[in-house]
Each structure stands twice: as structure tokens, then as C-alpha cells.
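Much of what follows relies on a compact textual record of a protein's fold. A record is reproduced here so that you can trace the correspondence yourselves:
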Amino acid sequence: MTGGARHHACLSDARTGSSSRLVVIGFLFAFVPGTFAQTAPVPGTRTDEPTGFLSRMAFFVSVAGMQTDDPRFLLTQRSRADLDLFSYRKGRVNFLVDTELLMGSERRAFDLNHANIVFETSSSYRVGPIDVAAVVHHVSRHVVDREFDRVPAWHTVGARGAHLFLMRQSTIDVSLEYGRVVQHTFVDYTWTSQGTIRLDQTLRPGAHVFASGSGGLVGVDRAVVNRGRQTGARAEGGVRFVAERGAVDFFGAYEQRVDGYPTSRQPSSWFEFGVRLGTP
């Protein structure tokens, strides 16, 4: 599932105090969206030490209604596969695929108008308490059933640092990343950055609450459309119920997306209310 793991451990009082301060920081990340930007998916965190091929696999599908005045955004359906292709003692090679289908109401009740596709490969190594990864990231945005002769897309090469804080009944998963745009079509991006934080709190066996926030900054080439650095964000919260072979999330979210529609040079924002089904 999106971001984060479910196993919990006891730490020293000092570590717990430090993590408590991070909870406060986490809620600042999650609920002040105007300070952030891009909202790309990130791999889930390892919580044990498996080694070998296909050591971890996570999948989900979700459907959410969108609340906005823009008729291009009515319903979003997302699917994700998050695979650790190979794990070694201090790291892993991960492959992530995320697809998002968006429907509006411009031409009919449910009008599929565009799709976003993400492919990412990363290789990490643990340096002290931090997992440091080299990341190759691809995004393409496909207009559906409309005339547009280009596919907005970009490729980035960059780095990500991540750490999972474990407490008695909760986890806090934090990551920071930066990527340089090495190829692009239609978009004016030159670099991307993102910070992501997720809090999971156990209520009872098989039931959790969660809150997450992500965002960063997007650098642009001012010569293309004469605009400055872009910002946006996503904040999400909900409840999670875990069974032996699967899990279900009920969630609400707010998102401000850079260039919300593929052919647009303007941000779009909306609220989401949905359900997500996936692996535990």
C-alpha cells in the first residue's frame, strides 16, 4: 500500500521523544499544502531484512470521487504495483508502476479524459539510519478522446533519502528527494523535488488510522511560458482495516496538482473521498 509499513517496535524513551517531535512536523507537512509541490508515488518501506529476489510485493486499486468546480475532474481510479525486485543486506532494487485514470463530466456523465502513468526504478543502500537511493523516474500524461498531438512527459534522474521511525503503536515514514529532468516533452520542468511523510497509528489489531502529506518544488525554464517555480501538494487521512490476505482503506484527501490537466499550465485542486483495496 501507499507509503509505509505496519510492524511496530519499542524504542528508548529518548528515541520516542524525538519521534514525537516528528509527529508535530508531520502534521505541518500534511495540513499546510501551500508550501509544497509535486506529489509523486514513493515505494513502501522495508521493515524486516529479507534478501533475495522478489522479497516484497505490494499492490492496490482505489476509486475516489473528486469535489471541485472544474468539470474535467469528477472521479479518479488508481492502480499501483510496488515490487522489491532484489534485496541485499543493506538495500534493495525497487520497481514501481502507478497508473491513474481521471474522469470528468464535460461530455457525458463519466467522461474519461486523461491518464497519468509513472514508472520508477531505484536502488538503495543504508547509510547509518538513512536509506539512500538512486532513482530513475518517468511520468507520461495521456489525453483521452481529445485532439492533442503530443504526450506531456518527463524523465528525471536523482536521489532519495528515507527513514522509518518505529514506536510502540505507530510508525512515521519520512522521505526527501530531488531529481534533475534529463528529457521532457511539452512541459517546461527542469528539476523536481518532494518531501513525503506518513503516520500510521494502531487502534487495535487489524485497525489503523493514518495521515500523510507530500509535496516539494518544481523548477521551470522561464523562457518557455514565462512563469516561475511551481508548487502544489497532497494531504490524506483515513482508516485502514487489515485482514489476513488483504486490506481496505477509507480515506479523504486534498490535492493541489501542478499543471492539473495534461495540456494546462495552471494548477488544479480538489478534495477526494474514496476506498482503496490492496495487500496487507
User: Anything to note?
Assistant: Residues 59 and 184 are 28 Å apart (CA to CA).
